[in-house]
Design goal:
Layout (H helix, E strand, L loop, with lengths): L9 H11 L10 H11 L21 H10 L17 H13 L10 H7 L11 E2 L11 E2 L12 E7 L10 H16 L4 E5 L8 E6 L17 E3 L6 E5 L3 E3 L10 E3 H13 L26 H11 L12 H32 L1
Parallel strand pairs: 3-4, 3-5, 5-7, 8-9
Antiparallel strand pairs: 1-2, 6-7
Helix pairs in contact: 1-9, 6-7
Bound molecules: zinc ion (2 copies).
Protein name: Metalloendoproteinase 4-MMP
Length: 358
């Protein structure tokens, strides 16, 4: 036999395949970048930076405030504020781990740079406490639903009406720009499912009621001023669609130069997903990912968004997967191919180990 394939080389192949099947590792981002991001964003949650590098057993003054944040977004059971301590205990560690899984971060159980950066990022006010999709055979599927999987129950193809509050509005975005933004956002969803959206004149009779609100506006989900929580919408068939009036909403970053400007169309597209019944996704590129940085546009539905909403409503007969972003479908295939390559690497390891034993 050719010596290269002798038994002595088998351990080398075993190690090689083990190495190849490991997931890629990327160096964590450094603190200076985090500080820059924080200063630019003037973020509601910027003071959470002081918890950087905290882990189980840490005791940092004010950590009870961070625990309130975790309660707010569904990671800790709601308890009286007085019983929240400043200690990083077991319960908090498991909350951090769940958060890292839900946000597609490396699962370290610690408040590392990526985790703190994510925590202080502006985000949607809808809780991340949701029911995962029932089938997760493919690693590319990370969409989720609200508990009980509510959806609009009307015969298909259905038409939902929307209207703008006559009172709770912002004046620096023109009516025509506002209507055009919502029309484009609704069209993105109706292109993939058999659901149409039309604007109604009667606000009170509309299925989807849209308004811009300041602070506490009576639904138990107070807004918090510039950045922090950007918007929230309720699950089917509630239809309430609320945006934080304190944000600098941008229709065009060319004319809106503010560093804290938030792209209206991106947030509207995301909230429509909630109106239809989707909860948050852990896929960072997906429209249903919970956070959005200022001056960022993310309006194209990704494979994860489409698969999630089509599981609830079926497909629009005119929809073709080829219409999705080429990079999205190729990424999805790359992920699936990668998982299959890993599987083959493990099969080879098992085979070689077995041949060593014989
Ligand atoms: Zn959301
Ligand atoms: Zn509200």
């Amino acid at each position: 036999m050719f010596p290269f394939f002798g038994y002595k080389t088998i351990p080398f192949f075993v190690l090689l395949f083990l190495f190849l099947s490991l997931p890629p590792r990327f160096p964590a981002r450094t603190l200076p970048e985090l500080t820059v991001v924080d200063a630019r964003n003037n973020n509601t949650w910027r003071h959470f930076v002081k918890f950087l590098d905290a882990g189980k057993g840490s005791h940092v003054t004010g950590m009870s405030e961070l625990k309130k944040y975790f309660q707010r977004f569904g990671y800790l059971n709601t308890v009286p504020e007085t019983s929240l301590t400043d200690t990083f205990d077991d319960r908090f560690e498991s909350a951090v781990i769940t958060y890292q899984k839900n946000l597609g971060l490396a699962v370290t159980g610690k408040l590392d740079t990526d985790t703190v950066t994510q925590i202080i990022s502006p985000r949607c006010g809808v809780s991340d406490d949701a029911a995962p999709a029932p089938h997760k055979l493919h690693v590319s599927r990370h969409y989720a639903y609200f508990h009980g999987q509510p959806r609009w129950a009307r015969s298909s193809p259905m038409t939902l009406t929307y209207a703008f509050s006559p009172v709770n509005i912002i004046h620096y975005v023109s009516q025509s720009d506002l209507k055009a933004v919502f029309e484009r956002a609704f069209l993105r969803w109706s292109a993939v499912i058999p659901v149409n959206f039309t604007e109604a004149n009667n606000y009170w009779a509309a299925d989807i009621k849209i308004g811009f609100y300041h602070g506490d506006h009576g639904d138990g989900e107070a807004f918090d001023g510039v950045l922090g929580i950007l918007a929230h919408a309720f699950s089917p068939e509630n239809g309430r669609f609320h945006l934080d009036a304190a944000e600098t909403w941008a229709v065009d970053f060319g004319s809106e130069k503010s560093k804290v400007a938030v792209d209206l169309e991106s947030v509207v597209t995301h909230e429509i997903g909630h109106i239809l019944g989707l909860a948050h996704s852990s896929v960072k590129q997906a429209v249903m990912y919970p956070s959005l940085s200022p001056r960022t546009k993310k309006v194209d539905l990704r494979l994860d968004d489409v698969e999630g909403v089509q599981s609830l409503y079926g497909s629009n007969p005119n929809f073709k997967f080829s219409s999705l972003l080429a990079s999205d479908t190729s990424m999805s295939w790359a992920v699936r191919l990668d998982s299959r390559l890993s599987m083959w690497a493990w099969v080879m390891v098992a085979f070689l180990t077995l041949s060593l034993c014989l």
